[in-house]
UniProtKB/TrEMBL annotation:
Protein's name in the database: Phosphate transport system ATP-binding protein
ABC transporter domain boundaries: 22-263
InterPro entries assigned to the protein according to its UniProt record, in alphabetical order: AAA+_ATPase, ABC_transporter-like_ATP-bd, ABC_transporter-like_CS, P-loop_NTPase, PstB-like
Taxon lineage: Bacteria, Bacillati, Bacillota, Bacilli, Lactobacillales
GO cellular component: membrane
GO molecular function: ATP binding; ATP hydrolysis activity; phosphate transmembrane transporter activity
Pfam families named among the record's database cross-references: ABC_tran
Length: 268
């Protein structure tokens, strides 16, 4: 990634030849009078994992939630600027948010399966999107669970309550639920922070496999995790992107002192 940051526009560009799955132009988010995101312009490369890192309260989750219009539901939140997906600005009222979220799926910090069976956790959303055919539903349930690396563990107990699964399995079920709708892009907000180290590493392995098919953007506080799984890393601070580059560069030779201080644990 060239990481050309122009002073005029604050656009941080991907490699010119890279295929861009999603980008924001001059994105601002306000909560009432407070400006949480201050004009962020970034491009996300297709079939790569991009990590958003930075200290607590710097706006990572706010930015992530804006990308599939989840901030629409947050009282007092106002998102301005462009979010360009497949050539159109999806941050305009005329665009159907459900369509946006079908294409740009989200997985949250705490596993939040519905209080239903493993099967229904996935089939429910598909039915809501109009799919009624049982064999088609069965097939998508199986493929999604396979892609989320959960099928082998649950294939004989699809009618068991999802709440009986372990935390790591529940999170992989939530990933399966998100990919069942066949999104292009997966947004994950600290998806492993509530998990033990073994479940964390299983979720990380799952994400590495999923990037073959999806573009992944993940908020993480865990810098080892960012360096293990992501191709690109963006360092957020006080509502701005301070530096955005290939992950190995961010962690070994960042260009900006604040990034260096943060990744080396000397931030303060
Ligand atoms: N619903 C809200 N209403 C008002 N202010 C909010 C709301 N959500 C977040 N904020 C504020 O916006 C700023 C950015 O918060 P955000 O949660 O996006 O940061 P973050 O970098 O993801 O933090 P963390 O790493 O702790 O999750 C913070 O000052 C926070 O207090």
């Amino acid at each position: 990634m060239g990481n050309e940051k122009t002073l005029e526009t604050n656009i941080i560009r991907m490699r010119p030849e890279a295929e861009v799955a999603l980008k924001t132009n001059n994105l601002h988010v306000h909560y009432g009078d407070f400006e949480a995101i201050k004009g962020v312009s970034m491009e996300f490369e297709k079939n790569k994992i991009t990590s958003l890192i930075g200290p607590s309260g710097c706006g990572k989750s706010t930015y992530l939630r804006s990308l599939n219009r989840m901030n629409d539901a947050v009282p007092g939140a106002k998102v301005t600027g462009e979010i360009i997906y497949q050539g159109i600005d999806v941050n305009v009222p005329e665009v159907d948010v459900f369509e946006v979220r079908k294409n740009i799926g989200m997985v949250f910090q705490r596993p939040n399966p519905f209080s239903k069976s493993i099967y229904e956790n996935i089939a429910f959303a598909l039915r809501r999107h109009g799919m009624k055919d049982k064999s088609a539903l069965d097939e998508i349930v199986e493929t999604s669970l396979k892609q989320a690396a959960l099928w082998d563990q649950v294939k004989d107990q699809l009618n068991k309550s999802a709440l009986a699964l372990s935390g790591g399995q529940q999170q992989r079920l939530c990933i399966a639920r998100a990919i069942a709708l066949k999104p292009d892009i997966l947004l994950l907000d600290e998806p492993a922070s509530a998990l033990d180290p073994i479940s964390t590493s299983q979720v990380e392995e799952t994400l590495l496999e999923l990037k073959e098919k999806y573009t992944i953007i993940i908020v993480t506080h865990n810098m080892q995790q960012a360096s293990r799984i992501s191709d690109y890393t963006a360092f957020f601070y006080l509502g701005n992107v301070i530096e955005y580059d290939e992950t190995r560069k961010i962690f070994t030779r960042p260009k900006i002192q604040q990034t260096e201080d943060y990744v080396s644990g000397h931030f303060g």
